[in-house]
Amino acid sequence: MDYSYIINKLGENRENYFNAVSPPIIQTSNFAFNSVNEMKVALSNEKEISCYTRGKNPTVDILNQKIAALEGSESALTVSSGVSAISLSILSNIKKGEHIVCVKDPYSWTNKLLNNFLPKFGVETTMIDGKNIGNWKDSIKKNTKIFYLETPNSFTFELQDIKEISKIAKENNIITIVDNSYSTFINQKPLELGADIVIYSATKYIGGHSDVVAGIICSNNEMINKIFYNEFMTFGNIISPNDAWLLIRGLRTLKIRLDKITDNAKKIIKYLKTQEKVLEILYPFDENFKQYDLAIKQMKDATGLFTVRFDFKNKTQAEKFSNSIKNFLLAVSWGGHESLILPTCVFPNENTPYDYVRFYTGLEEADFLINDIDNALKAI
Ligand SMILES: *Cc1c(COP(=O)(O)O)cnc(C)c1O
Q1: Distance of CA 348 to the CA centre of its chain
Q2: Using CA atoms, how far apart are residues 109 and 121, in angstroms rounded to an integer?
Q3: Which of 94, 253, 256, 339 could crosslink 362 through cysteines, CB 3.0-4.6 Å?
Q4: What is the per-residue pLDDT across 246-280, written as a single tens digit (0 to 9) for each?
Q5: Distance 15 CA to ligand 1 centre (A)
Q6: pLDDT tens digits, residue range 327-377?
Q7: What is the whole-number distance in angstroms between the Cα of residue 338 and the centre of ligand 1?
């Protein structure tokens, strides 16, 4: 299906709402029926027929249709956050006595789910260095049900070979889940490479304006139906019709935003490479990146996040640099219109190195951002 058709037409039956160009926000909790028979049919098919907004809401449904088409999956389910997409897809495929293999240092709350929460229910997880294919093979046990990948991750950008790992998973009846938040379906298609489930923090690039928290699960109809009728309807992790509308709006500009964001990242990296105080730059599409070959094999491009190690003499200098930056906001998260920094000197743990700064480039002009970094480097 054509990308332009998906973002502007698919799922938008405008004749049903006065030919409005922008779809209505169907802000209702429930839907009425014209007859007992109609209601009976709806109650036994809550995923396909609007009955109650915890199940199917028409505004959310437009979004789900577009996301599935963009991902190239049979189905998509939007949920209340990225972590709920992660939790629901894991919980739906695991039970007491079973085992998960996960890449080490995943998103912090994925780590919490696997290592603090699931052990209470008799589920065990092995965390591995996912760069090495052999590690995946070696950690398979008789009861292993899930391989969990996050490629690239959002701080050091380590990658996993989705195709090779999914192949090993298939041979062992293991479900492969990939957190694709960094790349989005614009730059990486895990399902085409053999993965079973793709999850997103839609809070990041898909929303794109730092005003919505949401998550998405993409998979085949059977898997999404299973998650919908079990974990999703029981836990009730829905998004509001209003948030779905904001995400539909975000989708319309996702590709041009990513183009600008990526272009900015590359221009800033080019500048940083000329700076003495820069010791190392972590960015998947940088030729010096350790996994550059894998990056160009499975991704179309890198996006707007990169991490820099600076030659700061001490923690005070690291703090001075971050306090001197004015045009990048000092904040967690990423994917919005605004550029951000996350310096490791903010973390309380004494063992965390203080000399790394993660940059996210937004939609500003590159020179505006480069001048800002240049001033901050001069200030220290
Ligand atoms: C932010 C993030 C999440 C969590 O998403 P929320 O929408 O904040 O719940 C998961 N994975 C990655 C890689 C993220 O960056």
Answers
A1: 26
A2: 17
A3: 339
A4: 999 999 999 999 999 999 999 999 999 999 999 99
A5: 36
A6: 999 999 999 999 999 999 999 888 889 999 999 999 999 999 999 999 999
A7: 17
Task: Express each pLDDT in 172-231 by its tens digit.
Answer: 999 999 999 999 999 999 999 999 999 999 999 999 999 999 999 999 999 999 999 999
Q: How far apart are CA 166 and CA 162, in angstroms?
A: 6
Asked if 239 and 80 touch (Cβ cutoff 8 Å), the reply is yes
Residue nearest to atom 7 of ligand 1 (CA): 82
Q: Is 82 in the pocket of ligand 1 (CB under 6 A)?
A: yes
**Does 284 sit behind a cis peptide bond, omega within 30 degrees of 0 on the bond before it?**
no
User: DSSP per residue over 70-84, as a string?
Assistant: HHT-SEEEEES-HHH
Q: How confident is the model at residue 169 (pLDDT cuts 50, 70, 90)?
A: very high
Tokens (6 digits) for 39:
């209601």
Ligand 1 neighbour 212 (Cβ under 6 A): no
Helices (H), the chain: 3-8, 36-43, 58-71, 82-91, 108-112, 133-138, 162-171, 184-187, 221-227, 233-235, 241-272, 292-298, 315-324, 366-379
Structure tokens of 212?
A: 């919505």
User: Could you tell me if the CB of 83 is within 6 A of ligand 1?
Assistant: yes
Instruction: Beginning with the edge strand found earlier in the chain, give each strand of the sheet holding 329-330 in spatial order.
Output: 278-282, 305-310, 356-360, 340-343, 329-330
Is 219's C-beta closer than 6 angstroms to any atom of ligand 1?
no
Whether the model clears a pTM of 0.70, i.e. scores above it, the answer is: yes
Indicate whether residue 107 lines ligand 1 (CB < 6 A). Answer: yes
Nearest CA to ligand 1 atom 4: 82
Bridge-based pairing of strands 356-360 and 305-310 is: antiparallel
Backbone torsions φ then ψ of 311, nearest 5 degrees: -85, 65
The minimum-distance atom of ligand 1 relative to the CA of 150 is 13
Number of CB atoms found within 10 A of residue 25's CB: 17
